[in-house]
């Protein structure tokens, strides 16, 4: 609701007939003045994608508005248009906002060019290729809780003993539980560095849950992060609602999955996503000629997203107009 209120209040700014601001008091160079006008016009044209929101009159988003841009795109666009281009600090924020908007655009385009029927099979194939396994939302949750039950008090067990404990407790509810499948779940946690491993001479190593993972919430988050990381390494882009459905069997964990995705993003992720989009477009033949956007997206990807970088000027802001022409 907070984002909706922001969007509705912004529609007031976008569509009221107000005199054009004259920024000359803070801009001394004629070239900067000219570039300011170009950048301002670009942002205003982008802001028009919020126009359907002006007709909602506080009663929520219409279906037309929702189909125009996704909620994440709306939020990122509002962030961009709120930046004060006449101020250096505002231009720095605008550069970061433009980069973020471009990155989200690439993500959504990749999602639209994936085959949803193949997505889950490709994901689980990538998980299995790393010696891990996901047993389904209900069974995986019980298996993780049993691992926690065995180790939450700081106990150290061999992998074999831990797996047998989980299988024996799991079998009454899930007869299909096996030492192999549970061993693959334990391997997933091992890959996520959830264990402190103590090697022993002529005996099996002992596995102890690290202290920070001795609650279900912390263990589950690290488990989910590992699966998302495997997907990213495999070139798969999965939306938060899809992740929620795949890992939890419901739609109530979208925010949880979005936060994991955000945390795993690095400055290099954007450039990698542009490459992945290019590959996806090659598979589909690119009927909409989206590949023409690649130079603009690469330019956005080269922006340093680190806070405090004084890298923006009016000239560099002129590339923001990339929405379709």
From TrEMBL:
<dbReference type="Pfam" id="PF18386">
    <property type="entry name" value="ROQ_II"/>
</dbReference>
<keyword id="KW-0808">Transferase</keyword>
<feature type="domain" description="Roquin II">
    <location>
        <begin position="211"/>
        <end position="266"/>
    </location>
</feature>
<feature type="signal peptide">
    <location>
        <begin position="1"/>
        <end position="21"/>
    </location>
</feature>
<dbReference type="Pfam" id="PF21206">
    <property type="entry name" value="Roquin_1_2-like_ROQ"/>
</dbReference>
<protein>
    <recommendedName>
        <fullName>RING-type E3 ubiquitin transferase</fullName>
        <ecNumber>2.3.2.27</ecNumber>
    </recommendedName>
</protein>
<dbReference type="InterPro" id="IPR048575">
    <property type="entry name" value="Roquin_1_2-like_ROQ"/>
</dbReference>
<dbReference type="InterPro" id="IPR052249">
    <property type="entry name" value="Roquin_domain"/>
</dbReference>
<keyword id="KW-0732">Signal</keyword>
<dbReference type="InterPro" id="IPR041523">
    <property type="entry name" value="ROQ_II"/>
</dbReference>
<feature type="domain" description="Roquin 1/2-like ROQ">
    <location>
        <begin position="122"/>
        <end position="208"/>
    </location>
</feature>
């Amino acid at each position: 609701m907070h984002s909706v209120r922001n969007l509705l209040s912004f529609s007031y700014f976008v569509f009221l007939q107000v005199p054009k601001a004259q920024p000359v008091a803070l801009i001394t160079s004629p070239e900067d003045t000219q570039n300011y006008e170009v950048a301002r016009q670009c942002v205003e044209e982008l802001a028009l994608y919020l126009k359907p929101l002006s007709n909602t009159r506080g009663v929520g988003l219409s279906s037309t508005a929702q189909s125009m841009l996704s909620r994440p795109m709306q939020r990122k666009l509002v962030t961009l248009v709120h930046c004060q281009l006449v101020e250096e600090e505002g231009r720095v924020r605008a550069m970061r906002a433009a980069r973020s908007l471009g990155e989200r655009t690439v993500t959504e385009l990749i999602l639209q060019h994936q085959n949803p029927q193949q997505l889950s099979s490709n994901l689980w194939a990538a998980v299995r290729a790393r010696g891990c396994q996901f047993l389904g939302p209900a069974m995986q949750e019980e298996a993780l809780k049993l691992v926690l039950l065995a180790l939450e008090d700081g106990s150290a067990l061999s992998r074999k003993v831990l797996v047998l404990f989980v299988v024996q407790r799991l079998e009454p509810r899930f007869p299909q539980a096996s030492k192999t499948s549970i061993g693959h779940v334990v391997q997933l946690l091992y890959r996520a560095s959830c264990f402190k491993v103590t090697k022993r001479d002529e005996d099996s190593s002992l596995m102890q849950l690290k202290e920070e993972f001795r609650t279900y919430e912390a263990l589950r988050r690290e488990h989910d992060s590992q699966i998302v990381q495997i997907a990213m390494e495999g070139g798969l882009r999965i939306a938060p609602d899809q992740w929620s459905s795949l890992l939890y069997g419901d739609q109530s964990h979208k925010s949880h999955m979005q936060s994991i995705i955000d945390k795993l993003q690095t400055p290099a992720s954007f450039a990698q996503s542009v490459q992945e989009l290019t590959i996806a477009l090659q598979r589909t033949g690119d009927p909409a000629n989206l590949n023409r956007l690649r130079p603009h997206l690469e330019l956005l990807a080269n922006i340093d997203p680190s806070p405090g970088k004084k890298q923006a000027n009016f000239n560099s802001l002129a590339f923001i107009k990339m929405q379709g022409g």
